[in-house]
Fold this protein.
Amino acid sequence: MGNILPWFQERIKHWIKSATPDLIPGIFSDITRSRADLVVENALLCQQLIMLNRQIRRPQLSNRDRFLLVFLSHFTKFWKQALHIVQPDPLLRWHLELFHLYWKRKSQGKPKISTETSALIQKMAKENLLWGAERIRGEWLKLGIEGSKRSIQRYMPKEREEHSSSQTWATFLKNQRATSGHVTL
């Protein structure tokens, strides 16, 4: 019993030791922070304690734990100081994975354009060679059809044949130079 009491006292001193080496600079750094930063930091620390209390040896993080750590770290700029059982690199990797998962699911929910609409885009682009996606979209709006410029671009023919009667700017300028008189001042 005599050996256990000093060991227990050492463990308590270790547990309540401040994160910063000196108490005064730690207090000043906490005073300069906003209340929201301190609340989020406490939430991050509590979440890590919950994860540690759940396991005996090495903490096994669930997807919920990862999500909560990423979510809470988003609300404070002092998130690196509040992490003790997780390094910043895995947290950044989890954030990137959540970002990819979010946009993957969001992009799958878009309705596809029907075959009739796709055929209408291709027909309008073929019959009106000078029209681009924005002009076709304007005509759609006149007809009461909703669609984005990007959707129209996606379904427009890739190779559009050149209009035979149109001339290039270089040809136009060459013709104008030949027919107009040169004026020098």
Observations:
- Residues 12-108 form one domain.
